[in-house]
């Protein structure tokens, strides 16, 4: 269901009439696109009728906090990029989540972040993170992609400590952060990550040759 660019704004309490008002069956909808509107917050009841929802696109709005998504436990893909989130909270109740994209927000705090061990792709790029200390985040045995570029990390060891929770990680992007090595330190920088995550294949868009 595509409701992007429909000028939805403010606190969203209900979705507009769809399909010419002919009674579209929300319970069968698997993909909901609410991108590029002016939504500031979303009432938890908005998604109550979307029991089969698997993908939710909320990018390009003005959300300041994560919406309550307990009504859509089947959700696998959640994109809230390009909003105004300042922190990342508990999403562990989304037990089938595979992809989480919160790029280009204002996130500086992930201390309360928790997610399902099913997660495969996580993008925290272009935020305000100086640390990725997330004590409530479990081991992420299926995580393959981690995007951290464009943040404010000054110490690479904080990133390395987080990646140890993701033994299957294949792609890691940290470019654009202050912690990036000088040309003379690239080999040591790469070795530190491959020691923590032997499965790593790409680091900052550069292939790793094991």
3D architecture notes:
- This protein is mostly beta strands and about 210 residues long.
- About 10% of the residues lie in helices and about 15% in strands.
- It has a 9-stranded mixed beta sheet, with no helix packed on it. A two-stranded parallel ribbon has the order 1-3.
- A hairpin with a 2-residue loop joins strand 10 and strand 11.
- Helix 1 (about 155-165) packs parallel to helix 2.
- It is elongated.
- The mean pLDDT is about 95.
Topology:
Elements: E1 9-12, E2 31-33, E3 38-42, E4 55-57, E5 77-79, E6 99-101, E7 121-123, E8 145-147, H1 156-163, E9 171-173, H2 186-196, E10 202-203, E11 206-207
Parallel strand pairs: 1-3, 2-4, 4-5, 5-6, 6-7, 7-8, 8-9, 9-10
Antiparallel strand pairs: 10-11
Helix pairs in contact: 1-2
List keywords for this structure.
single chain, 210 residues, mainly beta, 9-stranded mixed β-sheet, two-stranded parallel sheet, elongated
Number of helices: 2
Largest sheet: 9 strands, mixed
Q: Write down the secondary-structure element order.
A: EEEEEEEEHEHEE
Unreliable segments (pLDDT under 50, ≥5 consecutive)? none
Structural class: mainly beta
Mean pLDDT: 93
* Secondary structure: helix percent: under 10%
Q: State the shape.
A: elongated
Q: If strands are numbered along the chain, what order do they take across the biggest sheet?
A: 2-4-5-6-7-8-9-10-11
Distance from N terminus to C terminus (CA atoms, Å) equals 44 Å
Strand content: 15-25%
Q: How many strands in all?
A: 11
Rg over CA atoms, rounded to whole Å, is 18 Å
